[in-house]
Structures are given as structure tokens and as C-alpha cells.
Design brief:
By secondary structure, the protein is an alpha/beta fold. Helices cover 46% and strands 15% of the residues. The protein has 2 domains: 184 residues, Glycogen Phosphorylase B (Rossmann fold, 3-Layer(aba) Sandwich), CATH 3.40.50; 176 residues, 3-Layer(aba) Sandwich (Rossmann fold), CATH 3.40.50.2000. The model has no long low-confidence stretch (mean pLDDT 92).
């Protein structure tokens, strides 16, 4: 197939679209990109939509990016004649432009997040803003012929009249994460644990912080917490008694796989909100690909994705999380087995070529598509 990847996405900040492109290329598809990054991350976009006075900046940046996208997109479309146009993650606005530019094309939207759902998870109260974001979600979904989501739970959120457009494609992990691990253990007597993220409510980092506080007297467990965001101050306060915790603001995207692979355990999410029960976070896929044991919340989509290749703990339960880490520190053979199981699971199901299978099947079933 011939695919035109289109939009203001940023692969460095949002690896999901990178996984899709890697997978399509690995499957033999001819992929051309027309990409002008907007330069505003997920938190920034949601903040702008929640704070109307910031919308002129978003409109200005979008206008600049769209002028280039329109020029380059038309040129690439004429030259490439794609079977489908894939609009990258955070493409709520970009998919509307794609629909206007490529009226007869099959438009695919990577709809990893629902704007209204994300804003509600981050504390937005019901009201006009959430209704506006809900309308933005519906407009984006209606502009696409195929809607890519990451779990059955998210597929169920697609409006009933558009439900047949949804296809579930796991987030997966880029090839760089598989190349990074598993790394040798620098100290076999110490359990090294890593978390990386934006410290959003979905991730449940205050629960992680409280669990780390409970582990303050255990010298066998060392933890690296990477990232900044809404809940970091509270997480750091709750973990303050534990001097074996290292806090890092962030790690460059190209260095992060190696940093994570140097640890025994990668923490997923432990948030208790509705959104946390619907997702499998990218750090779960990436940590498994890097050869880490994965410890994450006990939810249906995460169990479906990981099977017996992870340790599952109740959401929002600091003692349970602390106990799970102690058990892994107590049992090195079990830790090795879990690391191997996570790595094997990732190779079989989370590699880019594996995750795009359902998307390719959907595209090749559309009348007029080609396959080579």
C-alpha cells in the first residue's frame, strides 16, 4: 500500500505515530511523510482548549503549520497517489484539514486520546468547556473514514453511528526500545525501578510516591522517577522519606530507551480514574520492549495486553505496590523470569510490524485499495 502520513505530530514527543510508520514500512508499505510539528505537547494543547484566552496562540501556530502542510500535502498527494492518508496523534484539527485537501482519499485518524476525556481526567469540571471538547472529538471522528484507537474500551467511546470506523491498534513500542535492552544488571543485590511520565492523574504518581515512602527502610530497592507535571510535587512530598529515590526532570527521547533498559522494573500506571481503566500506557509497552519487568495496575485492557508477563496491583493502593516491589527484590529468579516474559511478549505482540496488522487488514478491505 501507499500511505501519506500527514499532520502536526511530533514523533519525538509522541512515539505512537512513529510506531505506526515503522510498522507500515516494515510490512513493505510505501510511506511518505508530510509533517510540520506544531511544537505544543499534549498538556499544552489541552491547556489551550481549557483556557480560551490562549486559543489565539494555538490558531496562529496552526495557521503557520497548515500553510506548509497544505502546500506540501497537495504536492505529495499528486506525486504519491496514496491509498490512505494517515493523520498523526493529536490530529483533532489536522484531520479536518486533511478532509478538505484530500476529499476522495481514505482518511485515517490516529485518535489515541479523546480531548474531552483527557480534560476531565486532568480536573476539568462538567460544563461548557467539556461540551466544546466533546464537539471537537465528534468533528474529528466524522472527518475520518478509519478511526484508530488503542483499546476496546476506547473503541466503545466512539459514537454509535461511527462505531464501524473504529479499529483497535495497540500502542506498541518503537524499534529503538527493543534495541536498548535488556541491559545487564549493574548491582544484582539491588532492585532498580524506573518510572517515566508526565505525572498526570491517570498515572497515579501520588500512589507511587506513597509506596516509595513505605519502602524508605529497604536498602535493596532504588528508584528513578523521570518527568515533570501536575502531580509531581505531591508524589515527591509523599516519597520524601526515601533517600534511595532519584528525581530527574526529563531525559532526551533518544536516550530514554537505554536509561529505562538499565533498570530491572518499569512502573506503569496506578491511577484509579475512569480513563486509567481504559488505557494501556506507552510506558508499559516500552518497558517490556526494553527487557524490564512491568508492574502496573490491574485493569482489563492491561491484563489483555500483557497476560502473565507483568505484575498487576490494585489501582491507588500504595501498600500493594510496595509489597509487589519487595517480593521482586526477595526473589531474583522470579524477577528474571518476569523480565524474560515481558521481553518475549513485546517481541511477539508489541513490535511495530505486529501492531499494525489490524490497521493494514482494515485498509486492504476498503474498495479500491491496493496491496503490494
Amino acid at each position: 500500500m501507499r500511505i501519506l502520513a500527514f499532520g502536526t505530530y511530533d514523533v519525538r514527543s509522541h512515539p505512537r505515530i512513529g510506531v505506526l510508520l515503522e510498522g507500515l514500512r516494515a510490512a513493505g508499505d510505501d510511506v511518505v511523510e508530510v509533517n510540520v510539528p506544531l511544537g505544543i505537547d499534549t498538556a499544552g494543547r489541552v491547556a489551550m482548549l481549557r483556557q480560551p484566552w490562549r486559543l489565539p496562540l494555538l490558531a496562529y501556530r496552526l495557521a503557520r503549520c497548515w500553510a506548509l502542510l497544505a502546500l506540501r500535502g497537495r504536492r505529495a498527494f499528486r506525486a504519491h497517489r496514496p491509498d490512505a492518508v494517515l493523520v498523526g496523534y493529536l490530529g483533532h484539527f489536522d484531520v479536518v484539514l486533511a478532509r478538505l485537501l484530500f476529499r476522495r482519499a481514505t482518511i485515517v485518524l490516529d485518535h489515541l486520546i479523546f480531548a474531552a476525556d483527557t480534560a476531565a481526567d486532568r480536573g476539568e469540571a462538567p460544563g461548557a468547556k467539556l461540551r466544546l471538547l466533546g464537539a471537537l472529538d465528534r468533528r474529528a471522528l466524522r472527518s475520518a473514514d478509519v478511526v484508530v484507537v488503542d483499546s476496546d474500551e476506547h473503541a466503545a467511546m466512539v459514537p454509535a453511528d461511527l462505531a464501524d470506523r473504529a479499529v483497535v491498534v495497540p500502542v506498541g513500542a518503537p524499534a529503538a526500545w527493543f534495541a536498548a535492552g535488556p541491559a545487564p544488571r549493574p548491582d544484582p543485590d539491588v532492585l532498580s525501578v524506573v518510572f517515566f511520565g508526565l505525572f498526570t492523574p491517570l498515572q497515579g504518581t501520588p500512589t507511587i510516591g506513597r509506596a516509595l515512602g513505605l519502602l524508605a527502610a529497604d536498602p535493596r530497592i532504588r528508584v528513578t522517577m523521570i518527568g515533570t507535571g501536575q502531580d509531581r510535587p505531591e508524589a515527591q512530598r509523599l516519597a520524601a522519606a526515601n533517600t534511595a529515590v532519584t528525581w530527574r526532570d526529563w531525559v532526551p527521547a533518544e536516550d530514554l530507551p537505554a536509561v529505562v533498559a538499565a533498570h530491572d522494573v518499569c512502573l506503569g500506571i496506578v491511577g484509579a480514574g475512569p480513563k486509567a481503566r481504559r488505557v494501556v500506557p506507552n510506558k508499559v509497552y516500552q518497558g517490556a520492549a526494553a527487557g524490564c519487568a512491568v508492574v502496573t495496575s490491574d485493569t482489563r485492557p492491561q491484563r489483555a495486553a500483557l497476560g502473565d508477563a507483568a505484575v498487576f496491583v490494585p489501582a491507588a493502593d500504595p501498600p500493594a505496590l510496595a509489597a509487589a516491589l519487595r517480593e521482586l527484590a526477595d526473589d531474583p529468579p522470579a524477577l528474571r523470569k518476569l523480565r524474560d516474559a515481558a521481553r518475549d511478549r513485546a517481541r511477539e505482540q508489541f513490535a511495530p510490524a505486529a501492531v499494525v496488522g489490524t490497521l493494514r487488514a482494515r485498509l486492504t478491505s476498503i474498495p479500491g485499495s491496493t496491496h503490494r
